[in-house]
Amino acid sequence: MGTKTQPQLAKENERRIRANDKEFNAQFKYHNNYIKTSKYSLFTFLPFNLLEQFQRLANFYFLCLLVLQLIPAISSLTPVTTAIPLIGVLTLTAVKDAYDDIQRHISDSQVNNRKSKTLRNGKLVEAKWSEVQVGDVIRLDNNQFVAADTLLLSTSEPNGLCFIETAELDGETNLKAKQCLTETIELGDRHDLLWNFNGEIICERPNNLLNKFDGTLIWRGQRFALDNEKILLRGCVLRNTQWCYGVVVFAGVDTKLMQNSGKTQFKSTGVDRLLNFIIIGIVLFLVSICALFAIGCAIWEGLIGQHFQLYLPWEHIIPKDYIPTGATVIGLLVFFSYAIVLNTVVPISLYVSVEVIRFVQSFLINWDEEMYYPTTNTYAKARTTTLNEELGQIQYIFSDKTGTLTQNIMTFNKCSINGRSYGDVIDLRTGELVEITEQQTIFQNSNTNNRPSPSSGAIVAPPAAPPPIILVHKAEVHAKKSSLVVSSSGEAQVVPERPKSDDERPAPPLEAGEKRPGLKHVRYSAPSRSQDEDSGRLSPRVGGSGGLSPPIGNEERRSSGGFKRIGAGCMQRQLSRTSSCDKALQSVDFSANPHHESDFRWYDRSLLDAVRSDEEHSHVFFRLLALCHTVMAETVDGKLEYQAQSPDEAALVSAARNFGFVFRTRTPNSITIEVMGKTEEYELLNILDFNNVRKRMSVILRRGDSMVLYCKGADNVIYDRLHGGQEDLKARTQDHLNKFAGEGLRTLALAERRLTEQYYNDWRSRQQEAALSMDAREQKLNAIYEEIESEMQLVGVTAIEDKLQDGVPKSIANLQNAGIKIWVLTGDKQETAINIGYSCQLLTDELADVFIVDGNSVEEVEKQLRQFKESIKIYNRFRPGGFDAFDRLNSDSNMDPLSVTMTQTSAFMQETNLPPTPPPPPAISVVTFSAECNDLFGDEKGSDDGGTASIVVDENTGFALVVNGHSLVHCLSPELENKFLDIASQCKAVICCRVTPLQKALVVELIKRAKNAVTLAIGDGANDVSMIKAAHIGVGISGQEGLQAVLSSDYSIAQFRYLERLLLVHGRWSYYRMCKFLRYFFYKNFAFTLCHCWYSLFCGFSAQTVFDPMFISVYNLFYTSLPVLALGVFEQDVSDKNSLEFPRLYTPGLKSELFNIREFIYSVLHGAFTSLVLFLIPYGVYKDGVSANGFIVSDHMTLGAVVATILIVDNTAQISLYTSYWTVVNHVTIWGSLVWYFVLDYFYNYVIGGPYVGSLTQAMKDLTFWVTMLITVMALVAPVLAYKFYLLDVHPSLSDKIRQKSLKKIHSRASSDVRRTASSRRGRRSVRSGYAFAHQEGFGRLITSGKIMHKLPQDFAFPLGLGTKKTQVLHNNLNSVDGPNSKTNNVTGQHMVNNNTNMRQNQNQNHSSMADITADGRGHGGDDGRGSGGSDDMSPRAPCQDLDTINL
User: Fold this and answer.
1) Could you tell me the pTM of the whole model?
2) Which of 121, 252, 862, 1235 shows the greatest Cβ crowding within 10 Å of its Cβ?
3) From the centroid of its chain, how far is CA 377?
4) Could you give the maximum distance between any two Cα atoms of the chain, in Å?
5) C-alpha 814: how far from chain center
6) Are residues 798 and 649 in contact, defined by beta-carbon separation less than 8 angstroms?
């Protein structure tokens, strides 16, 4: 063997690239930057497409059949009958494939023709992306996509920094910092230096690992290590950096983005695969029948036929010398003749019809106005026409998070300051808690001309003025009690009220001195659960002020719309949901702040009033938000803009800005803010940076003689580091934390600590010593940080909403109720993924436990999986009913459909008239089972039906699994994948976080392979493409991350909520229609074809047809095609509204109940019975028959015409029984086809001159024909009707029951509200932590080192205290909490917990009172906030805890 050359060795082991040296790089034959996702070219389309189509078994079968029909000796039918439909199918499919490939060509062309600035001969020239070569030096400008994987050389920022957004790769929108080698920074943007750069790069071969790169740069005789921090990947976007230069390392298909893009796979539906299997069975059946008839023919010819050669001469090719040989040859020819005659069992028209039905169904999806998104003017689009019915059989949904479930928008939603909650909004019509959505409407207020006079309450006419136009956010309303003040400007403000005695009349909620003109006082009260419950309790103050509403006695309750005079000009009323609204809800006006953001929305006026009235605690709160962060500020076109490393920080700093605490600028050792128009400058002493272990970040600041530490982080982490004496404040704040977590908000706790100069200097010296330590540096620094981040004072809590797309929780709930399992595969961090899981109700507080797999080794992961499996075993053993109850739900067809669906949605029902659900099983992570046996097997009489009770437990409880990306690698390994699947399949939801695009595809492939399940993947970015391609169905969301996902998808929608309608309506209908079409099609074709089999017994097995050959040719084309097409296109068992209201209707598709081998056999047997009756009755009537005129009617042609006519009539009767939903098209096609048969028969026989001329006409003149037809049709229809009535009466399906109830018109609005799964996010309360912070470590060091600054200041020493003469408040004296407020808040917290229907509680698990907790010396956060589950007072659940503490 010869010695391998240098290029060969490099290609095998490493990749060598020399910058600006094409000759050197050309020897390795690296790929260029041209990409191709299309399948065909102009020259290869025809052969490749035909080859692909003939790989389908049916097409190949009909091709062979066509060849046989071209042989005259064996063909009794013209080849046109097969050729035309086959050519039609091939052409239709080819046109569709061509269209799809043209779209891929267009997409490739757009990408390849993007412009990139490339160095050529020392000059910067514009080149297409496809022309970029490995080794080229390219320039990237701000907000530009990276053309190829490049090594960063120089940037416009100091210290060689640049910032990128990787949404296309991992779905994350937060910025990431990259930094080039310090040695290459000097290249700058000087083209001569960059052109002369000749560094040689030795690196790894192309791979799909997004977070790994190993390489070496050899330049000027030195070697420099290269890692992932110096590489810009294709698909990233350059942000906040004017320009940067880099040398291309990987191009085209070698880039990591393309390496993560899965291959396009040929997708077929489960129905297609079943059809292929059935066709094989039919062909085998056909071969058996043909062989049987061939043997029969050979025997008949040998025994009888040889004597009739004078009348039935043998063909000239038949040897006549030896009879057995001749008979054998005749039998062989008859074999092929019968193969042609009986081929109509599976006609080519079946595939034509299937393609047409799918094609029309695709347009029905495209035209659905309910899936139109007006914001982006986007309709749903079926990008393929071959997978529609698969939408009705989805078992697993794999969803991306960012941009798919969420909007990529973070909003400052609520907060708690000094134990007072802010941010709740009250609906003016009903006094109920409002959930604001992003949909806005503009309407004209029509009620402003009739309003009560402030003095008398009479209706007065205001001055003539046009009614105002009001911009209103649509809102979902959930019942809560509160008191509020409504101003004439339409602003709602919740006001604290004082408790009063029962006999005291309610007074206006404001003190006399606080009254302002133009205010009217309204109290809204909602119906309570029971009179006894409300009469002795205080209702919670929803608005978050910390006050209380007065008790509402029974005598004070009024019916809807009733009024009661209270004092002068005040009214008490309870409004129904349909009552008119005097004023519309408006957001708080921040226009007085010159730095406010127009798109910032806040609806609680009381917080802004507190800030403007210089309330101390609110100032400390917003000052902390404005100072404790790593955000960079810059002025663009005269407007202040923020560049944040995470969207969480951007939302918090933006909120502080709008409330008057404006972050202006920063240097490496200073931060400048503007407070209510006055500048404050702080010396930045330290940033204690955030990381995933610390779960907090702090800043230490000095201003004047004051020194303070501000800290924000996870609530359980902050609570552990607070000083004593704050139990009351901690308890109230923890109550708000639980409420925010229950609403799916992302929470951060805020705290501060006042420092002395002496203490700080001592700490600073020890911190510097630890920072310079060579061993265990991280551990030492963490210990130093722990020391100063202690004895802190709690400031408050922020609650940020990672805004979900509208309707996501309801859609997920309905899809889960339909029996579909939902997995979320995201690149986000664990806390963020879990938080969104709760926010969208994929995870709920009713879950028995949430398992977290985060092991770093195979052994750790295996140990965790083993523990989780034992936990599930214990839970199933002690759960009431076990799995059998759920099976009973599926199998019990006698259960009322309303109760079935109400059972499924009981977790979301808030109505007060519903029966209570039974107590849940115990929290297996923290309890021993003997302690809660009474709860487990206790009283279940609260439910009307014991069986239903156990089903409710099964439906509402269960497990969820959260898997980290590094652990998922081990879970997908061969030795652990079975254990992983075993646990995942028993979990209600699975979330995989920190996963790469390729891991997403591997998870999908694993479920497809191991579970043999139908999968759907939905995403919106390039990082979702491989997952979309791997799944059976790929759905792309046309979102903010480009169109890569849409271009790779099978269906595209604008919002995740439309997936519910796509599956539960269009998917279910498509599957239902296709199955019904196939059952009827096989029935009518077996009924038609098997008539030849019965006739063969009377014609010597000669392959003589009973029907006219022309009738055989057009039977499926003209006589029966349109009715069955109308059935496949328009049929529906229930309406789209009912399909959404009863998700369980989707279940038959999951189990393939509507079309399977059993249903196919039933259709075949039904067809065989029909053909037997259809042939024998007319045969018996017309055998040796003579008409009244003495004419013989027992001829072959008359029999064939009569049987054909009765067949068409029977087909019409049968499809009438099959049809549940009648449209004009159904009427026209069904009855029109019957008329069309007689018209065409007359035209063919009399006009064209067919051989059967006059046969049918003469037969119809005789009464015998009509009686025969009546008897035959009745004999065929009566069994079908009897069977249908039997099923409807004894075993009705859910759809049957819904149709019956629809006919009886008992669908009331109230029952519809119960059936509908509500998106009741507001009103839940959780004891889990709502912490989530999408921040990354390292930005603190960049700030304090000055590397991140655009301009380094000449001198960082400056006089402090500039900008304001007013004494700045840096203390937050939370010990001075007023007593009445704290007490009332305690009672409020108790009442809200005890009345919360979503908390599963019992006598021993309620909050007894906050006083008990204070007496124990423990606040809520001390135990419960950490999620340790150690506090039995709080809840029987610890959802996010690992099951390490189970006593097995």
Assistant:
1) 0.68
2) 252
3) 21
4) 131
5) 12
6) no
